[in-house]
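Below is one such record:
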Amino acid sequence: MTKAELIFQRVKNLPEEKQSEVLDFVGYLDRKASMGADATDEEWSSFSLAAAMRGMESEDTPDYSWDDLKERFS
């Protein structure tokens, strides 16, 4: 059995959310391999942020008010 087949066997039994995490990680590894050693810190930072925020674009953001603050500094 190839490594790809072993990975598939393990991943297919994971919950959908965990499968998405695996897919994100594979994308990260693929991008890392394609960028090579020439990637700058800025490129990695941008890629890392985009990968971390993937899927969150459509989430509603909560509306906070001053009353929600537990500590205030002057």
